[in-house]
């Protein structure tokens, strides 16, 4: 067990790294962050910011020498860095989970091997015949890079097979997957934590709404039939067990028209759709990440209030920034801003959690705010 007073390391200092750092420091741990961006959000709250690339071995050596354990805020840490650290200190979750999550083909194949259903897909590589690949699938479809995609980045809509060559050329990537577009009824996610001893806790499911492939709202409690919720928890547990996972794991699900459940993707870390836990649960997903990393018992995940989380995107900053007065008029809304210096359209600048006696009321509060801000969706 790693106890308060020890120093923890994190690879990546974005908002997820920042919220991990705040949770760890509140619990009495020191935190060192490795991130190449001098202005990364976690730098402002960490004990030390190692400003270096993720494969800088002198920075990794410093981290290994000074930290009792290391985690990551994102899945795209180079494998060489993970292997280097794993030989020296506990790294949770480990390199296997990250390697699978950073590659859409490996990830989908891994789910299928566990007997879980995914959207129909086909691999497209440079040497492949585009027309042949197009014949394997039904359209409309989405072309996605196998690596480094997030918030809909590295994705192209492909309405018909004839659009595929142009979409493939514009992605300019060595490898992509072509995925049939599912008629979605709902999207939701399961965030779980698994301890060193293999104990698991599941946060209440979040019903997720996206706008242009970026998470917009997470609604909790999710309005999803109990049987589907159970199936999703079982699937997520099966993934965590297969990886002998330690840490916080998020799994995204699609519900198809006929009520069929598909696994979309996983994130080997806290997830945007779990930010509601900061204000609405006994312990947040970041508290849990600290506990799992340190080999401690997991905390209570109980929901204290219905809640809706809304992301604040850089779009809101286009004309001088959001009208904060209008936001602070709502006493039910809790504000989280990451301190990012530069706002760009689509960039996640912060989020808010609206708490109310039921999710519909919380949604209505955010709808009012959106109207006040003239930020329709
Ligand atoms: N096959 C699909 N059918 C329908 N919608 C999809 C499909 N794939 C992705 N989407 C939509 O785009 C969003 C982002 O895609 P996702 O594969 O999760 O990539 P990212 O890594 O950018 O989160 C999903 O949450 C969903 O709303
Ligand atoms: Mg996603």
TrEMBL record:
Its cellular-component GO annotations read: cytosol
Please give one Gene Ontology molecular function term for this protein.
ATP binding
Q: Which domain of life is it from?
A: Bacteria
Q: Which GO terms describe its biological process?
A: 'de novo' IMP biosynthetic process
Q: Is Nucleotide-binding among the key words of this record? A: yes
What the entry lists under InterPro entries is as follows: ATP-grasp, ATP-grasp_carboxylate-amine, ATP_grasp_subdomain_1, PreATP-grasp_dom_sf, PurK, PurK_C, PurT/PurK_preATP-grasp, Rudment_hybrid_motif
The record lists ATP as bound by: 104, 144, 149-155, 179-182, 187, 210, 264-265
Looking at the record, the residues that make up the ATP-grasp domain are 108-294
Q: Which PROSITE patterns match?
A: ATP_GRASP
Record-listed E.C. numbers = 6.3.4.18
**Catalysed reactions, as listed in the record:** 5-amino-1-(5-phospho-beta-D-ribosyl)imidazole + hydrogencarbonate + ATP = 5-carboxyamino-1-(5-phospho-D-ribosyl)imidazole + ADP + phosphate + 2 H(+)
- What keywords sit in the KW lines? ATP-binding, Ligase, Nucleotide-binding, Purine biosynthesis
Specify the pathway.
Purine metabolism; IMP biosynthesis via de novo pathway; 5-amino-1-(5-phospho-D-ribosyl)imidazole-4-carboxylate from 5-amino-1-(5-phospho-D-ribosyl)imidazole (N5-CAIR route): step 1/2
Summarize subunit and interaction data from the UniProt record for this chain: Homodimer.
Name the HAMAP family for this protein.
PurK
Q: What does this protein do?
A: Catalyzes the ATP-dependent conversion of 5-aminoimidazole ribonucleotide (AIR) and HCO(3)(-) to N5-carboxyaminoimidazole ribonucleotide (N5-CAIR).
The family assignment reads:
Belongs to the PurK/PurT family.
Q: Could you tell me what this protein is called?
A: N5-carboxyaminoimidazole ribonucleotide synthase
Q: Which gene encodes it?
A: purK
